[in-house]
Each structure stands twice: as C-alpha cells, then as structure tokens.
Amino acid sequence: MSNSHNPSGVAHRDPGRTTAPARPNRFRRALNRARTWLPGLLLVSPSILLIGVFVYGMIGWNTRLALSDKHAPVQDGDFVGLVNFVALWQEARWPAAVGNAIVFTVVFVGGALFMGWLLGLLLDKGVRGEAVFRTLFLAPMAVSFIATGVVWRWLMNPAPAERATGLNALFVHFNLDFLVNDWWTAPDLGMAAMALPAIWQLAGYIMALFLAGFRGVPEDLREAARVDGCSEWGVYRHVVMPQLRPVLLSAIIILGHMSLKVFDLIIAIAGQQIIADVPAVYMWAMVFEVRDPAKGATIASYLLFAVAVFVIPYLVWTVRKERSEGR
Amino acid sequence: MRARRWSVAAGALGLVLMASACGDGGDGGGGEQVEVFSWWTGGGEEAGLNALIEQYEEDNPDVEFVNAAVAGGSGTNAQAVLEGRLQSQDPPDSFQGHAGAELQDYIEAGYLAPLDDFFDEQGLHDALPDQLVEQITYDGSVYSVPVNIHRSNVMWSNPTVLEEAGVDAPPETLDELLEALEAVSEETDAIPMAVGAQWTVSHLLESVLLGSLGPEGYNELWEPGASWDTPEVADALGTFEEIMEYTQEESAAEDWQEAARRVSDGEAAFNIMGDWAAGYFDELGALPGEDYDWSASPGTDGTYMWLSDSFTLPEGAPNEEAAMTWLELVASQEGQDTFNPLKGSIPAREDADPARYADSPYLESTLEEWQSGPELAGSFWHGVTVGNRWKNDIDTAVGLYLGDGDTEALNAALNEAAQSE
Q1: B103, CA 20 to 30 Å: which among A45, B172, B289, B296?
Q2: CB contact under 8 A, A182 and B249
Q3: What domains can you pick out in chain B, each with its CATH number?
Q4: Three-class SS of residue A208?
Q5: Inter-chain touch A185–B253, beta carbons under 8 Å
Q6: In this predicted model, what pLDDT tens digit does every residue of A266-313 receive, in sequence order?
C-alpha cells in the first residue's frame, strides 16, 4: 500500500529538480505506472503474506528448532549448531530408516515410471475401448493411501504356505509355492514390497502423463520417420521418446517427493515398526510420542532437504525453459 | 488460482478464529460445566465412561458435563491434541492418562496440580494398595487418581492344543514354558507362541523380564541409573530369545487381536497379552475353560504387573471445583464399580464389591487375586515405570532386535536407554 506514495516521496527528497509545474506531471506518470502493477500486487499480496508466514516462516522456525537443544517442550533451547544433525547418524534407527526410504523410493519411482510408460504406450498404439482402460487405470488415484494400505496389508500377508492368506494363498492355490514370500516383513528388501501398493496407485496417473506426451508429438513427425524407413519401434525410440523428456522429469519429481515423505501408506500397512521405519514415521514418533521438538525438527529438515533435491532442479529448469521461450 | 485458494483459506481461518472467540466467551460466562478429556470412544470403554457421566449428572444436576473424547490409536491421537491444548494454556478440567511415569512429562512441565490433599481427604491411601500409591508417586506427590487396573502379565492358552501336545497344565516357570513350547511344536501343527506386531513383542518382553528377575529385580530396573548390563538381564534376554523362536513368521503383519484370536481358535497354544484380551474373547464368543484359559505368565504367579487409567487435575483448570467432584466420583467405590464391569477391568480400590463382576469369570478371578494383596510391578510398555522417551528407546531396541536377532546388541541398547534417563 505504502508503495503507491513512494514516487512522490522520491520527488520530495530531490529538491534540485522539484519544480512546481513538473510535479503533477510526474505524479500522474507514477500513478499511471502504478496502475499497471499495483492491482496485481494487491491481488497476490494475501497469498504472498500467507505463504511467507505459514510456509517460509514455519520453515525458518523449524530450522531454528533443529539447531537448538530444545529436547522437551518446556525447555528454552540454546543454539547448538549442527549437533542434532550429526547425532542422528550415530544411532541405529536413523540410518535404517533412511535406507528403507531409499529402497522404497527407487522401487516406487522406477516401478511407477515403467508401468505408467508401458500402459501409456499400449494405449497410444490404440486399443478398443481406450476410454474404459484409461478410467480403469486412473481409478486407483481416487483411493487414499490409507485405504490402499488396508487392502494391501491383507493381500501381502506374509504367512507361510500352510497358513497362507492373500496373495500367498493365491500362489499356493496355483501350485506356485516358490512365489510365497515374506513381502514387506523381509528383513533386507521388504521395503521393495511396500512400494507395490504405491506403484499400483500411481501408475495410472503416470500413464495419463505419458499418454498426453505421446499424443503431443505431431503425427507429421512420425510419418516423416516412417517414410524414411524407420520401424514402428524406431519411431518411438528415436522420434517420440526424446520429446517426452519434460514429461519424464515432471513424473520423476511428482513421484520422488511423494515417496520421500511417505507416511500414511506405511502406517496403514505396518504401523509403527522398525522393520518398516521411514523418516516421516520416525519424525512423528519423536514429535508426538517422545515430545522431542529439536529431534523432530531435525528429521523434518532432512526431509525438506531431500525433497528440495528433487524440486529445486525442476524449478530451475522450468524458469530457464520459460525464459528461453520468451515468456 | 493459488491466490484464490489462499484467500478462501484466510477467510475460513478468520471464521474459525471468530467462532473460537465466541466459544471462549460462552465458556467463561457459564462456569457451570466440567470438561473431561479422554480417549474412550468405543466398546466397553465408552459404555463405562457413559455410565460415569450419567452418575455425575445425576449427582450434580447444575453442572453441564462436556465429554471431550478424542478417538483413535489407543490414545496417541488424543495425546497429540492434549499436548497442543496444554501448551496453549487451554487445559480441560480433567484428562485421562496412564498412571505412573507416562505423566512425568506433564508433571515436569508444570501442567498438573498435585493431589496429595485430595488423597488424604478421600482416604485413598487406605483404599488403594500401598505399593500402588508408592509406584505412582513422583517426587513425593501423587498427581492422578487411578480408576481401574489392568493386568499385563497374563498368559492365555488353548486347553485343547495343550492336551494334544501332552502338556497337563499351563507352565508355571519359564523353563516349563520352554518345554511346553517344544512339545507343542513337535506334537501339533499349532503355533507355540502367538505374538503380533512389534509392540506386542515389547509386551512379551516385560512379562519375560518379570518372570526371570522376579518382582524385586524387575522393579529395580527402573530405578534411576540402574544397570541392565548384568548377567541376570542377559539371562532373561536369552530366555526371551528362545521363546521368540517359537513365534509365527508373519507376526509383524498382525496386531494383538489376531494373535489372541489364534489361541481361542486353536491355531496357537499360548499368547501373552494384557487382560483386555478377556473382553475380546467374549466378543468372539469364545468360552473360558473351553476355548481359552488363563494363568499368570510363567514365573510371575503372585505378582500383578499392572497398568491403570487415571484422571488428573490440570494446573489452571477452568472449573476446578467441578473437576474435584468428578475426581471424587472416579475415586469412589461406587464410581469404580460402575465403570469397571463395563470397561472389563477391575477397580484400583481394594474394597470393590465382587458381586458386580460375577458375570465375567475372568474378572471375578482376577479381582479376587487383586484383593488378596499381590506383589505389584509396573508395566513399562503401558507407561507405569518409564516416561515416553525411555519407552520409545526400548521399543526401538526391540524393533532392531526383531530385524537382526542380535541379543547382545539388544542388551547394550536397553542398558544405554536406562543410563541416558
């Protein structure tokens, strides 16, 4: 608001040039200029203010907590630097949780990308009733992770063959006993199984992204390649796929940040157990059960950092692209 | 788009603020109400609470009772909500908490008022077992009124499976238990010892520690600075490891209900779980003595590993007088005998009327044992002997052990948890 008076204020502070006849003119010009940007600023200022306080202000508050020794809600907490950040790596639980999150992320992002790409490709090649398939594949998106988790918790029951239920029972029924496995309760790569429900849920969404990408490639280009003697696979390999890089990047970022902060799916399937521990669950336990603000904030900072690794390059890339396109 | 969403959010926020401001004004003006916070929102717990509320409203027709119960997660959701209210100095008039060290954080934060005078006035020192009062005393004061008692060290067994395995009676010592587990695994197809998710293993651990160390040795573990790096603890953990070998592979995917159900369905021989399982067996329609039986977990006969729900008086409670009448009700014999048969637990007071528990064979027998003056040991998993941080450290150690099976690392981690308190 005060910005609108600023131009006249500048004029006052410059006595040498302030001549009486010039003033109304300058003022009018400043006012005209303000007309172009002021309404826009007023329109977005509530948003800027709220995001500033409730997002960036809170990030700042969280960072301050993480750098303090406020290990109980009633302590004041002094600045201790990066002590909390280092201490986490010296315990047994944190590295295990990070390892779990990495396994989950790799399998989930890789699996959802592959499945989404494959489904998109199949639909792009044209199947009868495409709209039906598209809806079917997209439908899991409408389900919450909690509901998905409850169902998959039952499907992925790790009981051995003689007591099998869920998918294991299916394997036993078809005499595929060698497929009966521990699912997410397997000690080392159990988190890979934990990623299956997430892949199931998100593959349809990735399919939609890829399908839009495929459709965005002009038919002329494909025709040209075919005329030049390119095989159908070659058309995809050399003409269509290279143009899908932006889609791929968006998909990786969307999946990656979801994966790093996964919480509800884990809670629905495993509850709070070390075997399926991830940083977000650990943070929840520290904040709401142990009531250790500093440690919870430290884990939150690591989570933010991990997500930023995905998001910031994306933002940089978007800004650059918009500039190069002259927007 | 985003700006619009934010302005909508801002508008909503404004409305909420206005509404809460109005709400506060109303509360302050009336004064004739009492707000009681708990996580009793379902099953027998809710029925018990409602019976208490009815009684309260009958005794105090001028006071409006506000039931501020928060559902979910055996109290974890409620505790998160409560923490926020206490920090913003908006306490309820009384809130539920597990008696014992779990309240320590609140006491240290100055959220709770001591209830020593109340205990004297109400004669609770006589009505409650001495050892119970001693175990809920913090720095010479008591801060909560225990309304019920649950027992943690109960072993549930299936008589048919035991007979098939040639085990005549439920084992009374840990050595006998190991023999029985061996017999069950060789003679039958049943799971010898059913457990569930990680927390039920922590629950099993406390019963094994008590059975191996005895009540005195067990209670000493929770003294400040007590060492866990002893041959006795190592021995107990060795037994624990042997018992764990007889548990089912898929336990991590099950909660306590599934593990308990396996016993009453004849899929498992034993399960060590708190006595809320008795209420669950009733729900399932299982018959005591036929589908399931109970005994003290091996080596703990004559000792009651207890946990208790209790009510507190927060510092700065808006309606302190009404809160005191609520505490009087939950402390009274009448109140406790109204609440407990419905909740499926027994009163903390020793002068309960056994006739009111005659419907449940389990409650009848356990009440008799409670009134005969057993040794008392506090359950660590249910927050009697350890605060939240220590409990979480133990649970983490147990979880890591379930992953790597390294008993020495478990012992070291348990010792470190005790030392860092």
Answers
A1: B296
A2: yes
A3: 20-147+311-364 (3.40.190.10), 154-299+387-419 (3.40.190.10)
A4: helix
A5: yes
A6: 999 998 999 999 999 999 999 988 989 999 999 999 999 999 988 888
